[in-house]
Amino acid sequence: MRERLLVAWQARLVDLMEEDPTAAEAVRLLSGELQAKLPAARQQWIQNVTAAAPGATAQGVMFGNIVNHPAPGEPPREREAPF
Fold first, then answer.
1. 2, 6, 11, 33: least CB-packed within 10 angstroms?
2. Which residues contact 45 (CB under 8 A, 6 or more apart)?
3. Distance CA 80, CA 68 (A)
4. How many Å apart are CA 56 and CA 2, to the nearest integer?
5. DSSP at 81
């Protein structure tokens, strides 16, 4: 039930912010307040990934792997150092 509610509320909040961009800051503030109320063990599981540059891509993963594939027709890039 929790997972279904999470998906539904995420969609509603995205819709709200698209309809009223000024609501985004209020949603961020509320999110921060709620995160601060979580027990310490739960706070460490929160991950925020942001890409702000034009054409940028942001990726994040917890407890798993990210596998990237080049776009069709694009040669694979050389592997970069992990840090």
1. 2
2. 62
3. 13
4. 32
5. P
Q: How far apart are CA 7 and CA 41, in angstroms?
A: 23
Using alpha carbons, select from 43, 10, 42 the residue that is nearest to residue 27.
Answer: 10
Structure tokens belonging to residue 12: 């509603």
Which residue type is seen at 22? T
Name the residue type at position 20. Answer: D
- Rounded CA gap, 43 and 59, in Å? 20
Q: Alpha carbon of 46 to those of 22, 54, 62, 63: distances in Å?
A: 24, 25, 9, 12
Q: pLDDT at position 53, please?
A: 83
Q: Which amino acid is residue 38, in one-letter code?
A: L
pTM: 0.39
- Within 13 Å, how many C-alpha atoms sit on residue 17's CB side? 11
